[in-house]
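task queued by scheduler; priority normal; single chain, no ligands, no partner chains; default sampling; output format set to structure tokens
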Amino acid sequence: MTVATDEIYEKYLQKAITEINALGDEVAQAAAGTRVPVVGSGHPLADVFLLKYLPRAAELQEGVAFYGRAGNALLKSLQRLRVDPMAVYGTNCLKFADGDEEESRPFLLRELHIVQPKLVVVMGEQALAFLNSVAFPLAREVAPTEGELQKFTPTIDALFTPDIDDSLDEQPEKTRFWNAFKLLGEWWASLPPY
């Protein structure tokens, strides 16, 4: 008896949902009631994994990564590139405004293992340094080369862009971000259909 591909995918999806929820609970416990945790958001088996360094005010208020201006700008950019926003997961390296890197590395490592993306979009030099410091299996160091696909692991590509939060106000910074980020559209278009 063969199991339908959809049934296998559903089992992986249920497992990922359970693991992401458990991770969210652990981040909340690490907050110890004194800090506001900011958890990742999006599809738990996303093809695209958006990563920025730290949560901003709107994210801290809602407790969700990419909430607010950065999230709205990214949603418009994804639509413009014809990338399905339902195939995207976004998170911060640091899970608290006052979080430290040592505390946060295991959380990001688990998020990457759970989501198993095909592409990590690393936003900004701090996020890049953080990602490069995480001991992800078979990972290569990602270079700070904007708008160029790189191999992060044998199965995960990486795309480095400027920090989205620092790119929202000045036109030259918006243009710089867009010029690096737009490669995502070409990458997405080249994926084989499901």
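post-processing summary
- The chain has a mean pLDDT of 93.
- The radius of gyration is 16 Å.
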